[in-house]
Design goal:
Helix content is about 80%, strand content about 0%. It is mostly helical and about 500 residues long.
């Protein structure tokens, strides 16, 4: 009896479908394009191989890079230590082991959720108004949302872990903390430490973005160089940043042992403070001028009138459109490029491409695109999507390397073409975890619309900048509240989609 083998195209093709949005985006940009900045873009590309080697320029960039690294290390260390502690307190499993009930963990999760819903840039701009230009402003702006984000990840990891040792230990009469450290810590320590290491890369990018908007560090130097069209100086800073990121990545790879990774976040704040003091970075605890925020907040009538100053449906719709466009590009571009150019050689080249896209902050990418086209939602979404496609591309490359290329080689030996072999081989193998992470990434993109809206002239980010520049604190309050609500709704929808996806996956 002949055996009929059918290949289901749904699973490997699903990651490719969002990439089709590029056709519409290219059409819109072609319509809105002016091409006036094409010579400038050519100069920008040529400057990549001819960066500035002026000792004065390099000295200034190195100083800015050190400030960015100090801010990243300090915020990463603080958020890691506090995040681990809060993550255990937010875990329903831990709460049931210690107290016998789950409501304290659920209540703490609900109380902390608004803190992670506000983007670190918004935190930075608000704290800047209260405390002035101080090193702790950037540190706290990153540490506050990162602490809560890390707590959420750790709590979810603990609650999703099913250990047969837990009921045995509880039944034997072991103390609650003995149950936790014996039944939960050993199996979860390594993946959690991997996440802690990944947050350092995120903290470095966040510190860079805060610098772009005037909070000091290398980001400020890169923004000034781009605005003054000093592309050689800008590329000198980008190459220095790339070298620093490679060194940090290698150091973290050398410290894969979880026992060593637990020590580094504890020591990093001490190292960062000593380093910052050597750089004359202002790290003395600032005195806040809270009256700046509450000067006109006491008048409730102003709050009601401020809420009516913005066309909320249009602003929210533009924010969601930017999120949708960026999410489609970030999700669809890496697998689409992999399918267009399959092979082991392309993996190495594409890995460099995704690293370059992660390297360039989204606001600077938007400024470069403005040289070719007028401001629009498509341009803002493209700039944000290209940056996040660098993150998704790295995830895809890592997943493929972890699963191996044996499936592609097997299909190719059976006579399949290279593209079909990669489509139904490695891409099909990693499609489900890739799409699961894409849902989480869209939540991050929704938060990041704040930074691209400030450049692209659209969405809540643009309205926030206008309100901050006019010191209209009631309007700032409504915009921040709306942004937080949208982010929390997006997270809730993402969790439901992940749950539905995982349940369907278990049924297959």
């Amino acid at each position: 009896m002949a055996v009929r083998i059918t290949l289901k195209p749904a699973l490997p093709l699903i990651p490719l479908l969002p990439g089709l949005s590029l056709l519409g985006i290219v059409a819109v940009l072609f319509r809105d394009g002016h091409g006036g900045g094409l010579p400038l873009l050519q100069e920008f590309a040529a400057a990549a191989v001819h960066p500035s080697l002026d000792p004065v320029v390099l000295g200034s960039l190195l100083n800015g890079l050190q400030i960015t690294l100090v801010i990243a290390l300090l915020s990463w260390g603080i958020s890691s230590v506090l995040g681990v502690g809060l993550g255990l307190l937010c875990s329903i499993t831990v709460s049931e082991i210690v107290t016998g009930v789950s409501w304290p963990a659920v209540l703490l999760r609900r109380c902390l959720a608004p803190l992670r819903a506000v983007h670190e840039l918004i935190w930075g701009l608000l704290l800047l108004q209260v405390f002035g230009l101080n090193g702790w402003v950037a540190v706290c702006a990153i540490a506050i949302p990162y602490t809560v984000l890390m707590a959420r990840v750790i709590a979810d990891q603990v609650d999703c872990h099913v250990s047969p040792a837990l009921p045995v230990l509880k039944g034997s009469g072991a103390a609650p903390w003995a149950v936790i450290f014996t039944g939960l810590v050993p199996p979860l320590a390594q993946p959690l430490c991997n996440h802690v290491g990944h947050r350092l890369d995120c903290a470095l990018r966040s510190a860079l973005i805060l610098g772009v908007f005037g909070l000091g560090g290398l980001g400020t130097d890169l923004s000034l160089s781009l605005r003054s069209l000093q592309f050689q100086e800008m590329w000198s800073g980008l190459w220095l940043l790339a070298i620093a990121m490679v060194i940090l990545d290698r150091c973290l790879r050398m410290l894969r042992g979880w026992s060593r990774m637990l020590i580094i976040p504890v020591l990093s704040p001490l190292i960062a403070i000593a380093w910052g003091t050597h750089l004359d970075l202002q790290l003395s605890w600032p005195v806040g001028q809270w009256s700046v925020l509450f000067a006109n907040v006491m008048d409730g009538s102003q709050g009601l009138s401020a809420a009516l100053e913005i066309s909320w449906p249009a602003v929210i719709a533009s924010t969601l459109w930017i999120t949708l466009i960026a999410g489609c590009i970030a999700t669809g571009l890496p697998p689409l490029l992999l399918l267009v150019w399959p092979g082991q050689t392309s993996l190495r080249i594409q890995e460099l491409l995704w690293g370059a896209l992660r390297l360039l902050p989204a606001p600077l990418t938007a400024l470069l695109l403005l040289m070719l086209a007028k401001p629009s939602l498509a341009l803002a979404g493209l700039a944000l999507g290209l940056h996040h496609s660098g993150v998704m591309g790295r995830v895809l490359m890592d997943d493929i390397r972890n699963t191996g290329l044996r499936s592609a080689q097997t299909l190719k030996s059976c006579g399949a073409s290279p593209r079909v072999s990669w489509l139904y081989g490695p891409l099909a193998d990693v499609s489900r975890p890739y799409l699961t992470y894409a849902i989480y990434r869209i939540d991050v993109i929704l938060r990041d619309t704040a930074i691209i809206g400030l450049v692209g002239g659209a969405g809540l980010g643009w309205q926030l900048m206008e309100a901050l520049s006019s010191f209209h604190w009631w309007l700032v309050f409504w915009i921040v509240l709306t942004s937080a609500v949208l982010t929390l709704l997006g997270e809730s929808l993402g969790e439901r989609l992940q749950g539905s996806w995982n349940s369907r996956a278990m049924a297959l």
